[in-house]
Structure prediction request, 56 residues.
Amino acid sequence: MTTKELAAHRPPVGVLLSGAAGAGIGALGMYLFDPDRGKRRRTLVRDKAVRAWRRK
Prediction:
């Protein structure tokens, strides 16, 4: 297969970005909803958000 033929079979950039975004959202969900340490992480995120909101 030539380089030109390979280039014709590449998926569109939007498909790649959608896949990367989905993987990132999944990783974030696993990080925050971890049964062992997720509660602590969610509390830290909430506290930082509240502090940032009050600093405005």
About this structure: The mean pLDDT is 87. Residues 49 and 55 are 10 Å apart (CA to CA). Residues 13-32 form the longest helix (20 residues).
